[in-house]
Amino acid sequence: MTKKVQFLAGLFLVCMCVLMLQIMETRILSVISFYHLAFFAISMAMFGMTAGSLIVYFNPMFFAPERLFANLVWITAAFSVVVVLSTTMLISTVVIDPATGFLLAVLLWGKVIALLVPPYVFAGMAISLALTRSPWPVGLVYGADLAGAAFGCLGALVLMSTLDGVSAMLMVGAIGAVASCAFALAGRDYARSTLPHWLGVLQRPGTLAVVFALVALGNAALQPNGLRLTVAKGQIEDVGNFDYVGWNSYSRIVVEKTSRNYPMMWGGSPKVQYEKIDQRYMNIDGDAGTAMYRFGGQIDEVAFLKNDITNLAYYIRNRGRSAVIGVGGGRDLLAAYVFGFRDATGVELNSIFVDLLIRRFRDFNHLADLPGVKFKVDEARSWFASAGRNRGFDLLQMSMVDTWAATGAGAFSLSENGLYTVEGWRKFLDSLAPTGVFTVSRWYSPKDVDETGRLLSLAKATLLDLGVPDPRRHLVLAAFDNLSTLIVSRAPFSRDDLVLQQIMAAPDVAALQALSAKFHLDVSPPTDDRPFFFNQLRITDPASMLRAMQADSGVIKGNLGATIVLLIIIALSFGLVVLTIVLPALPSIRRVSRPLIGAGTVYFLLIGFGFMFVEIGVIQRLSLFLGHPVYGLAIGLFAIILSTGVGSLISDRLPLGSSRRVMLWSASLACYLGALPFWLPFFVGVFEASPIVIRAAAAVLMVAPLGLLMGFGFPTGMALVNALDTRPTPWFWAINGAAGVLAASIAVAVNIAFSISTSIWLSAICYLLIGAVALALVRGSPVARGAVAAAA
Length: 792
Prior knowledge:
The chain is α/β, with parallel strands linked by helices. It is built from 25 helices and 14 strands.
């Protein structure tokens, strides 16, 4: 290989590692804490990489062009070492609910930030050096940067599907060391004396690559022993009781050893005397529990399932075809068989659960051996949206499909929220036979509207959307203790059942939404545009906040904890951004004209906020379309990075150097963003029943024009301000990075309080304002004036 190819390969691998690390950290953090931290990993990556690039900028003598390869070798080697060290410390990190100790929670989240940021600082240094010091064309170097980042999004899915989460992150460290090897080959004559002797290991990247790769593979082979997560959801795990641990790109499944106890049931009748049975407790990401019963194939072994309130609907529909959303340990499919169904289909997103039932624990539970039982590994909305055999069900069951992790995280979890929207329920009701029923079980509080109220609101809104004139005749609600079961029928029930009367009496969807203000609790029907079923805290309503603070338990209490964590992260991010990015960049604006500083600052603030509002909104929307947040994050970032990169490259050949071009660009982007929420539902509807590969391709197609146009923003701004004065460049870099770090958290809050569309429309406003500021910069640019004069 030539020196150029080796250099580009090294850059490709570094950028790939950065994106893989971001996505994998969301997976690890989902076990340690909750699912609402996807935006947090993105923010920390932006923060660290901005800080790294400023370190390079402010130390031009140390990072001289002639020492490019020497610096790249040790920096990327340091990146790999820090990734491994960060991982080993992160796996034992505890985070707590702020309600149990606010100051301690702040300190612990500060520790998480301190562990997440360092790898990105070194990555930012390496990428900044490669882009600003290399002897090859910037377009070529930038292309390798983009390609690596884009493929890193896909590489993360591959690694997480083949290794456990901890081993996958260790493998990122090994790949980072391989990048260092590539840089070492490209600059064989680099000096070794630039580092202290005790840091000499950073000049042996080959050794690091081999050692880290062997550690990663060996650790994977040792699971569930070896390096592993020791804390989940704030609790120390008892690995001695683990019989199996399985990881994939969107979950960690733990199966405990067999125990003999009373059967695990959601809402078992207290009037029945149960016998102890053998069962295995299972959890998803450390908290969401289910069980697998020992089942030898005789239905009488699990007859106790007739006494669980979640199975109430089987008393009125028990013949024909049934389907279950969320197979888990197989209890709902067993219930279908117990009541009489002999055609039962389990639709399960997580292939691990299906593998446990049909292969690994088949001798323990013979559900897979029952005639007529079928398993489908697919996202439920997509599977039921497809035509043909996926219609005509007499009973469709969805019991407690949320994971408590999602409920605790409240507004910020999208892992199953796509199953609890009007659009999703339309798909489910459309799949029923004319007299079929859809049964859903959720938590219930006799003293509060809580989840049951919102569930009922969602059911009624869906029936109204389907044109049902009197939804009350299609609904039955039963509650026992802390659980409720709602049965929704395509045809009217034989008699009216009045439950939660105020919600049922609401004449339309607008009236349902108005009830939220009355209850100081969000009971509005969730939609794909605001799919946060598990968040009932109205953060814009002080009375709702007070109600949450007074609650002893329940969903709203978890919502409050998640909101406080969000505020802690925003505050910590703001402090770190000011101290490590903004303040160090301040000297660069001394003796620079105030109009330029003002206009440039506004421009790069708006670019940061506009871009992140789109990125977070698109990722959350794609999470529903693709079936899981990890897919939304990976495919969304892949499409955004690739298309914005192409847009940036095109901006070099087609610069926005005239007022007309600036206005056309700004208006085109704002129009696309403004229209996106209106046509996106139709676009999604066309592809929703397609396989995941087709849906992913459609997602990239949807994002591509948007990213292409957004790619013009940053390089155009830099070109315009540099044409006037190059001295404040670090300041504008810092402002853009700071805005991006803070905007990610703010975008999440906007989506929760209002809608994903609101976030996208705010982005459209940002880009319209950017056009106005850019217009002022264009008119003040001597380059632009020269171009206009030449054209005249």
